[in-house]
Design a protein that fits this description.
170 residues, alpha+beta, four-stranded mixed β-sheet, 39% helix, 16% strand
């Protein structure tokens, strides 16, 4: 038998996946846009990590962790993180399911992990190029709209300063 045999699309235990992505990350939003253009064998729903929707739908999932590492949640509550999350997302895509099968082998898992680590390094470099960075020195995640996630407190809103005159007058 040649080629990759499909492994039961119609009887798959996962019928839908939610991808939690960092809406403030250029790489993450680029990949989100790419995913929505792909033919999907399993529907993908893309939700910003740490958003009110994500916190409401997945109260048992740590919002800070979803901002640090790609997280995918299956319709039956399965949670995939890091390389496993990427493999399951590729598995959901028509054109990339054979690649997902190859990445699910021991040798392929090493390649998938390397790709995820490279993406994390790229994200880290992008954060460092922004003034003040995205992550504070104490594990605080900062968004451009004034919201920040502090592990000990949760989400905190610090309105942007109007010192430069850029705020609207009311």
């Amino acid at each position: 038998m040649s080629g990759t045999v499909d492994r039961g699309v119609t009887s798959a235990p996962v019928r839908g996946l939610t991808v939690l992505y960092d809406a403030e990350c250029g790489l993450c939003t680029h990949l989100r846009d790419w995913l929505v253009r792909q033919a999907q064998l399993v529907p993908l729903e893309l939700v910003p990590a740490g958003s009110a929707e994500a916190r409401t739908r997945f109260p048992g999932v740590d919002p800070a962790a979803t901002l640090e590492e790609v997280t995918v949640i299956g319709d039956s509550g399965q949670v995939y993180r890091g390389a496993a999350a990427w493999v399951v997302v590729l598995w959901a895509l028509r054109e990339h399911r054979p690649l997902a099968h190859r990445l699910s082998t021991p040798a392929g898992a090493l390649l998938a992990r390397g790709a995820v680590l490279a993406a994390a390094k790229y994200r880290g470099a992008q954060w460092g190029t922004r003034q003040g960075g995205r992550w504070g020195g104490q594990g605080t995640y900062r968004r451009a709209d004034g919201w920040r996630y502090v592990p000990e407190q949760g989400w905190v809103f610090d309105p942007p300063s109007c010192a430069d005159g850029s705020c609207p007058t009311g």
